[in-house]
Amino acid sequence: MAVLFDLDGVFYQAGEAIPGAAEVARWVACENIPHLFVTNTSSKPRHALVKKLAGFGIETSEEHILTPPLAAVRWLSTRLKDRPVALFVPDITRTEFSSLPLWIPGNDTPGAVVIGDLGKAWDFDTLNQAFRLLMNVPKPQLVALGMTRYWMTDEGLQLDVAPFVMALSHAAEVEPVVLGKPADAFFKAALDILDNEADKTVMIGDDIRGDIEGAQKAGLHAVLVRTGKYQNSDLELGIKPDAVLDSIIDFPDWYKTFI
User: Fold this and answer.
1) Identical fold at 2-40+181-258 and 75-178?
2) CB-based contacts of 159: which residues, under 8 Å, 6+ apart?
3) What is the maximum alpha-carbon separation in the chain?
4) Helix segments in 17-175, DSSP class H
5) CB neighbours (10 Å) of residue 74?
6) Is the pLDDT of residue 258 over 90?
7) Lower CB count within 10 Å: N or C terminus of the chain?
8) Does residue 253 have a pLDDT over 80?
9) What is the 3-state secondary structure (H, E, C) of 95-116?
10) pLDDT digits over 122-170, tens only?
11) For residue 49, which of 74, 70, 76, 28 has the smallest C-alpha distance?
12) Third-level CATH fold of 75-178
């Protein structure tokens, strides 16, 4: 049974490691369980996530991490031919798109407008620039690096990428292609990387919609943890996880009984 692990809210929260998380990661590696760390973050490249995890005592490599930018590059590289891509992502994340031709202001219309989590860097001018690009004819493809509505920071809840994607989609009348959780395409990319079938894969996450509902719609098993953004009301939404664990520390015992 292969495993997809969410990161934020499962292995760490608000800059602190979840107790016992590093031991679980080591157990998974020692047991040679096929796995990926899957995250909707588009504010950091994979090498930065590897370094961040190491700070929590979790040793992994870029090959074991799937982010929306990586899924987007895989998707765009087979569809755009030589048309450039307009990026609305943090500067540090642009390196993940280095294999694609990038749009330069003043040049030809881009083939796609990619929206990631710019956080506090979003302002009216930036959002309006993306809108104007989407109003070109033919319309570029609107690519969303995830559709997470919000996430938990050490300052409290903060808007994520979905509200900005929805604003652009509504204004420009274009449907986004979502290449992050909870989209099928994101989970399909994970399964392709693992070379595994959906019904032989389980997703572990703290987001009842992005992790649990998204995974189940893609045919995976899904386990919810009561950490991160979890709220008791999540279990009243009609979404039924395969299991609910108090923390990732309970995962090994559950896994042994499930397989």
Assistant:
1) yes
2) 149, 150
3) 58
4) 21-30, 46-55, 68-76, 124-134, 162-172
5) 16
6) no
7) C
8) yes
9) HHHCCCCECCCCCCCCCEEEEC
10) 999 999 999 999 999 999 999 999 888 887 777 888 888 999 999 999 9
11) 70
12) Rossmann fold (3.40.50)
